[in-house]
Amino acid sequence: MTLTRLPKPVPDEFPPACLHLDDIEEIKDLLVATLEETDTEPAAGEATTEIKTEIQVDDRVSPEIKEFENFRKRTHNLELAVTKYNILKIGASDSRLPMAAVTVTMSNASTSWSTLGISKGKELETYSKLEQVFHEKKIWWRALAHWRWAYLFFYLLPMLILLATIGIQIAFHIRAGTAPYWAAFAVVLVFFSARLRHSTVILSYSTDVRAKREELRSRISLIFLTAAVTLIGTLLVQYILRKIFH
After folding, report:
1. How crowded is residue 240: how many other Cβ atoms within 10 Å of its Cβ?
2. Which residues make Cβ contacts (< 8 Å) with residue 182, sequence separation at least 6?
């Protein structure tokens, strides 16, 4: 007998990203193309196929993405479901049987997807295309916060700062003050603020002035956040060095 290695499962999550409505349309087109290329078992009798799209933003549902333009500035909760039906005529009525489906779900906790009735090869091909869309708009600090070892890193780093401070105080008989504790607090605060959100969808097209304004606001927030952490770290290092050599 021989041992066969099982193939690795297709990933079911995407990195955090800041998307616009045109990115959502690109994702929808990828999902529709996947279902069009997916062969489903024909139903008995005279049957046709139909692909239906449904987008849910918070508590609103629509088959058209453009309907959500200017609905609100942004959202962190969106579900895009594309389903392929076999429509079987039974007398004067039609019976819809879902044969294949792909759903992309964005929430505060994660950005994931699920499939039904799609081959493993087509699933992997679709994931690669979707992952590229998310990777191009990836929010790196949120991706770091949602990294599987993030808790270890963001808990260990503040502890190392505090332990180094205590060690320096004992070794050099100095008082480091409260700066190290503020630095440790800042690291933990940045971590948890990034954990509160995953992907963001700006409910306008990327060519829209309002979308550019929202994107600029996000970048300014990132600059201020990075500057604050850098400033605290720099002041901390300068303070410790001044205590050691003076």
Report:
1. 20
2. 232
69-102 pLDDT per residue, tens: 878 888 999 999 999 988 777 666 777 788 899 9
Q: How many CB atoms lie within 10 A of CB 165?
A: 22
**For residue 242, what pLDDT band results from cuts at 50, 70 and 90?**
low
Distance CA 230, CA 54 (A): 44
Query: What's the half-sphere exposure (Cβ side, CA atoms, 13 Å) at 181?
Result: 5
Q: Where are the beta strands (DSSP E) in 42-170?
A: 47-57, 60-62, 74-75, 78-90, 93-106, 111-116
The reported pTM is: 0.72
Residue 149 φ/ψ, nearest 5 degrees? -105, 15
Task: Give the pLDDT confidence of 157-173 residue by residue, as tens digits.
Answer: 666 666 666 666 666 66
Angle (CA) 102 104 106, round 5°: 165
CA 24/CA 183 separation, integer angstroms: 39
List, edge to edge, every strand of the sheet that includes 18-20. 18-20, 200-202, 74-75
Task: Look up residue 232 and give its amino acid.
Answer: I
Q: For the beta carbon of residue 221, count every other beta carbon within 10 angstroms.
A: 10
Beta bridge partners of 114: 103
More confident residue, 204 or 230: 204
Nearest to 59 by CA among 77, 82, 81, 83: 77
In which residue are the tokens 């105080």 written? 169
Interatomic CA distance for residues 202 and 204, integer angstroms: 6
List the one residue out of 42, 40, 120 whose CA is nearest residue 83: 40
Amino acid letter, 71: F
